[in-house]
Specification:
Main location: membrane
Domain ABC transporter: 50-280
Number of strands: 10
Strand order of the largest sheet: 6-7-8-3-9-10
Number of helices: 9
Subcellular location: Cell membrane
CATH class of the largest domain: Alpha Beta
Protein name: ABC transporter ATP-binding protein
Helix content: 25-40%
Oligomer: single chain
CATH superfamily of the largest domain: P-loop containing nucleotide triphosphate hydrolases
Keywords: Antibiotic resistance, ATP-binding, Nucleotide-binding, Transport
Radius of gyration: 20 Å
CATH architecture of the largest domain: 3-Layer(aba) Sandwich
Amino acid sequence: MPPEDVDTPLSDPGPGPATGPVVPPTTEPVPDPSPVVAGHAATAGSAPALSVRGLWRRFGQKVAVAGIDLDVPAGSFYGLVGPNGAGKTTTLSMSTGLLQPDAGTVHVHGQDLWASPLQVKAMLGVLPDGVKLFDRLTGEQLITYAGLLHGLDRDTTAERTRDLLTAMDLTADKGTLVVDYSAGMTKKVALACALVHVPRLLVLDEPFEAVDPVSAANIRDILASYVRSGGTVIVSSHVMDLVQRMCDHVAIIAGGHVLAAGTVDEVRGDASLEDRFVDLVGGRVSGEGLAWLRTSSD
């Protein structure tokens, strides 16, 4: 049976096939995208940080992702937005090797993810949705463990762990077990683990969910600095204003398709990003059927 929320990835199926995935199980029509189409081209002469072609994923009879094409330019701050169940998490999970696609290809800085999973995953820093951590470690131990797993020496790992604990405002809680962290603290320590090895591409699924405003502002500053230094960030979010202020590129996904992609200014046109999103996705309803929901001074 398909899961209730098709936007939630399954467990890691392993490194996947060494050759290209199979032909899509269906040939359902893909709607024509808006004039700012999916697959915004990267800067001439450089490989995109992430390039996906013909990405498909089905859960039972439910098609979660239906032939997505997308290019994320190197050095960009890329927002991925869409309604619940749009296929964002499934797309990001397949793009980072957490979920095997039914069809399609994924290249990270020109390298085929499924042909060379170990080499490609070494370039990635990932904060997945519903992250599961070794929560019987302390925050300090968890970041240290992540650094050592990525092959950093102990001195470098210790230095970066201290810096990340400070940046995430977790120094006072470094000796606390992660199982006792709040939801926001857990999100921050998971982000620290994704950053410790200085990845070339950082993929974050709802990184600001449950994070307090001060910590969120600090994290935005960290990510902006990372992009200025040459890194690439992909972030999914439901908060249109946040994406509009933070990102320079954006893709709107709904029903497993990319409806529009490009720079934020190209996609939103003369409207706000939220208005453009609603126009493309549809589904807005009025409250006229709730005439009984009125207050009265009588």
